[in-house]
Amino acid sequence: MLVSILPQAYFVEKVGGSRVDVGILVGAGQDPHTYEVTPRQMARFGSARVYFRVGLPVEDRILRRKDLLPPDLEVVDTRAGVRLLHEGCVGPHGGADPHIWLDPGRVKIQARTIAEALSRAAPAHAEEFRANLEAFLGELEHLDRSLADKLKPFRGAKMYVFHPAFGYFCDAYGLEQVAVEAEGKEPSPRELAGLIERARRDGVKALFVEPQFAAADAKTMAGAIGADLITVDPLPRDYPRELERLAEALADALGKKDD
């Protein structure tokens, strides 16, 4: 099995258990928007039975290389059945925001798609996959309730971020994402000045950045408004732990705003 990013590996392993060996294309700290797959990684497709995609640009570049992909490879689009957002991180030519894994509710849909694909690939283990799926859905429900409880007092609040990766997270918990970067581009000096003024009006106490991006403008903005710069990883290997950490940091920052 192959996946593009670390959170997908977590999902496939939760459903597949010991029956799956998952290869990951984009590693920790790497940007899946600009990442180029190596020849060695492309060679791994020759022995893969299933490739789970999620809608990232790197996947389009891979799937155009039909000459290097085995004809019997099943490409499973885990966006199937997921309500997509067409704002936030969509790139200069539009399309849908690919970060669907940052909402546990949407991950439930992805998990069912994964279970169906694994059952097709290894029907002898379909019952095991179904049992794993039910356990995983329970874990996601628990995570969703925990995040909702933490963020319920702040519905309608703004989450200021550098890269607009958190649209689905904000959509799930009634928040509004405000991004420094737009359509993959850093702001002009005039745009940055406007963002700084808006953040001051909003009483922003934290600006969230990602380890995958160098964010000099984010540092400038945080310094100008006296906000903390908080690093959160939207591509975590330990999915529930990082989302809990994000919710706690966000609740703490929004709570300071009300002090």
Word description of this protein:
With 259 residues, the protein is of the alpha/beta class. The protein has 2 domains: 2-78 and 104-148, Rossmann fold, CATH 3.40.50; 155-257, Nitrogenase molybdenum iron protein domain (Rossmann fold). It is 45% helix and 11% strand. It has 9 helices and 8 strands. A 4-stranded parallel beta sheet has the order 2-1-3-4. A two-stranded parallel ribbon has the order 5-6. It has a two-stranded parallel ribbon with strand order 7-8. The chain starts with a strand and ends with a helix. The relative contact order is 0.13. The mean pLDDT is 91.
CATH class of the largest domain: Alpha Beta
Q: Please, how many domains?
A: 2
CATH topology of the largest domain: Rossmann fold
Which spans of ≥5 residues are poorly predicted at pLDDT below 50? none
Q: What count of helical segments does DSSP give?
A: 9
| CATH homology group of the largest domain | Nitrogenase molybdenum iron protein domain
- What is the SS-derived class? alpha/beta
Rg: 19 Å
Mean pLDDT: 91
Strand order of the largest sheet: 2-1-3-4
Helix content: 40-55%
What is the global morphology? globular
Strand content: 5-15%
Instruction: Tell me the CATH architecture of the largest domain.
Output: 3-Layer(aba) Sandwich
Largest sheet: 4 strands, parallel
Distance between the termini: 49 Å
Summarize the structure.
The chain has 259 residues and is α/β, with parallel strands linked by helices. The chain folds into two domains: 122 residues, 3-Layer(aba) Sandwich (Rossmann fold); 103 residues, Rossmann fold, CATH 3.40.50. It is built from nine helices and eight strands.
